[in-house]
Model the fold of this input.
Amino acid sequence: MSKVTADSYQRLFEQNADGRAVLEELMRRFCAPQPFVPGADGERETCYRLGQRAVLDHIINQINLANGV
Done:
């Protein structure tokens, strides 16, 4: 098994048309425009949304790292 690097993320999600489409779909689905839900009852939903977004933030950070950003 080969090692996954920042370049791996770049090739998969930026240089591959299917990968770009998948990343866009994931962002539409899991990156709420406003992750914070007001009120005491909103804390759990806020944490849930931020957890989903953390995965996508990692992917984007790896792509940016490969691009030297």
Remarks:
- The chain is about 70% helix and 0% strand.
